[in-house]
Every structure is written in structure tokens, then in C-alpha cells.
Amino acid sequence: MLLFLSKNTINGERTTPAKLSNGDANPIKIKISNQYTFPIRIKIIDEIPFQFQIRDFEIIRKMEANSNNELNYDLRPTERGEYFFGNLNIYVSSPLRLISRRFTFDKNQMVPTYPSYIQLRKYDLIAFSNNILQYGIKKIRRIGHTMEFEQIKEYIQGDDIRTLNWKATAKKNTLMVNQFQDEKSQSVYMAIDKGRMMQMPFDGLSLLDYAINSTLVLSNVILKKQDKAGIFTFSKKVENRVFAERRTSQLQKILETLYNIKTNFFESDYSHLYADIKKNINQRSLIILYTNFDTMDGLKRQLPYLKGIAKSHLLVVIFFNNTELNAIINQKAVSVQDIYDKVVANKFIFEKRLIAQELKKYGIHSVLTTPENLTLESINKYLEIKARGIL
Fold it and tell me: Which Pfam families match (predicted)?
């Protein structure tokens, strides 16, 4: 009965990030204060947003008399939008567990889920690290030295040995190289296809959300490189436009626009994409198109519009390998059906490579990647284009 005689004997508080990061593990903290004068057993039932479909969440702990405890768990959202937490329920029982008492805290807490800002911070550190090679970001050798001289710096692995400054090397008694500055204030647009082909899921996220996360990270890299970043989406029409600029508020503007992207996954209309780019983007720009083509026939239907875009702009088409097909190929065939599945899977994988070759034939750059490597490959392609000076 001592459980019910006292008031204010249990305090509980849930702490969440101000916003959740889509596709990432987000830490949730629960702080509990036990003011009972005897040990207790607690069962925590947190009413998690319905999007997670977790109906059996509970944490059981023992607490000493007059003690505090902090519990942690992670939530990984796979959709953007508003997530509503319900009550934080704490059931307290005595060591004999004959009866229990419920305490309720934190009603109706809403936390928005934004595109992956955790990846944004991660790649912000990586892309501008002095040792980027270890993270998978390629250091591209520059062709010629038409760029503006910036500074003399110490040699690090991956620097072009042709830029060695022998006079500075002799003076400092360590290898020194000339560093050249990329051309700045170039316009870069990320165009996101939000049509039917981008609905395919991978590890809980749609290809569309992988493209959205990648766009946020790449926009940050572009702005840090002092270029102008812009975005737009398309399916039946072009939407969610942010014109390429280099303002201090540009990244926040892009983040809010990406957060609000909505789609019904209709068939994408590339004729509207081509017409809109021709009308609204007058300056030669780098256009990075996130889309997906499964077959050559699918590509050929849109190729006239892609060729039209590539006449005025540097176009990079980023599309996806189907990782499930690789799993089928790597499995041992034990039946005729398995052999048939392997043949079909090989055909689709080969067709993806043919699509990349077909794009190259018309001067269109391409990146064929997996969803998990999308952000890294996108950064690499942008840095390659900057280093080559081909924009």
C-alpha cells in the first residue's frame, strides 16, 4: 500500500531531438526519478508514433530507493513528416510485485522528421577533411592549371605531384605544393524525379527519400565550395523549386523545401522537365538528375528530352542498381526456377550498364549506384566535375 500513500514519488521525462533525422538512428532519452524510500521495479511503456508500427514497446528496470536513472533507445524513421508521441507511462511495483501503480507524463508531443541532417553533419566533416581518401571520397587529379592560384600548402597523399613547389620545399624542408582554386559561383541544380520509378524501397526508405537525403548533403558541399545550389522536383509537373543561389539562408531554404516534398508517384513527364529547364535556367549549369531507369526502352522514351537538356547544360543522370538482384545472383541455384531467376537478374543488371553506355554516347554523364552509396557517389561526381573544370 505504500505505493499509493505518497504523492510525487515518481517523476518521468522524455527528451527527443528537436527534429528527427530521416533514415538515421535518433536517440530518445527517458529520465526517471524515484523518490520512494524503498527499491522498486518499473515498467516503461512509451507511446511511440504510429509510423514506427511498434506495439510492444516496454523497458523493465529495477531502481534503488531515492535514485535517478536515465534510459536510452533509438528510433529510425523512414518517412518525412510529423511524428506524434503519446503518453510516457511508468508502472511501479514493489519488490513482491503484488500490485502496481501507473504514472503518466508527456502527453501529445509532436516531433517533425526532416531529411537526414545527421548525414549532413557527417559528410560536412568528411568532404572538407585533410584526409578524405579514407572516407571513400576520391581525390581527382586536375587536368592542366587553368584555375586561379590560391596558396602554397604542405603535400598530403593524393595531391598532384606536378604541382610541387621546389623552392618552397627547399625552404621548409618538407614537400610543398601549389594549390589552385576552383572556379566559383557556378550554378548546380539537383533535379529529383518523384515519379513511380522512385517508389521502390530499400532498407525501409524509398529511392525518393534517398535522393532527398543526398540532395541535402550535396547542397551543403556545393555551397561550401562557393558554388550556387538549387533544387526542383518533377513528376507530372515541375515543383518545389529553389533557384540556385549562394546566400547564407540557402541551405535552410533547401532543407524546408525538401521536408515538404509530397508525391503520389505518378508517371514522370520528361517533356515538362525539358520545357521548364529551357524556360527557367538560362545560364549553363550542372544539373544532377536523380531518377531511375530499369530498361533501355524506358530510357529511350525519355532520351530525346535528356539530349535536349544536355545541349545547354552539363547533365549527370544518377540511377540505381537493384541490390536484390545481386542477392539472387550470389545465391546457389538448387532448382530450375533458381537458374531462371539468375538469368533474368543478370539480364536486368547488364541492361543497367547498357543504359550508362547509351547516355555516354550522347555526352551525358551518369552514375550507377546503390541507395546506400548514393550520397558518397554524388559528392564524388560533383568534385570530379569541379576538378576537371568541364562545366
Answer: DUF58
pLDDT digits (tens, 9 = 90+) for 250-275: 999 999 999 999 998 999 999 999 99
Q: What is the DSSP letter of 164?
A: B
Q: What is the largest CA-CA distance in the chain?
A: 86
Task: Please give the Cα distance from 266 to 235 (Å, whole number).
Answer: 6
Distance CA 44, CA 28 (A): 13
| Cα distance between residue 202 and residue 279, in whole Å | 35
CB 203 within 8 A of CB 372: yes
Residue stretches of the chain with pLDDT short of 50: 132, 143-146
312: burial class by Cβ within 10 Å (0-12, 13-18, 19+)?
middle
* Closest C-alpha to 210, from 270, 288, 291: 291
User: Which domains are assigned to the chain?
Assistant: 2-113 (2.60.40.10), 117-143+182-388 (3.40.50.410), 148-181 (no CATH)
Helix/strand/coil for 190: strand
DSSP assignments along 342-370, one per residue: HHHHHHHHHHHHHHHHHHHHTT-EEEEE-
pLDDT, tens digit, 9 for 90 and up, residues 314-368:
999 999 998 777 777 777 777 878 777 788 778 888 899 999 999 999 999 999 9
- Residues 6+ away with beta carbon under 8 Å from 61: 41, 42, 44, 69, 71
Residue 217 cell numbers, joined: 548533403
Q: Which of 22, 391, 374 is nearest to 215 (CA)?
A: 374
| Cα distance between residue 71 and residue 31, in whole Å | 6
- From residue 282, alpha-carbon distances to 244, 275, 286 in Å are 12, 12, 12
Kindly provide the b/e burial profile for residues 83-113, where b requires at least 16 CB atoms within 10 angstroms of the residue's own CB: bebbbbbbbbebeeeeeeeebebbeeeebeb
Report pTM: 0.83
Pairing of strands 201-202, 187-193: unpaired
pLDDT, position 336? 78
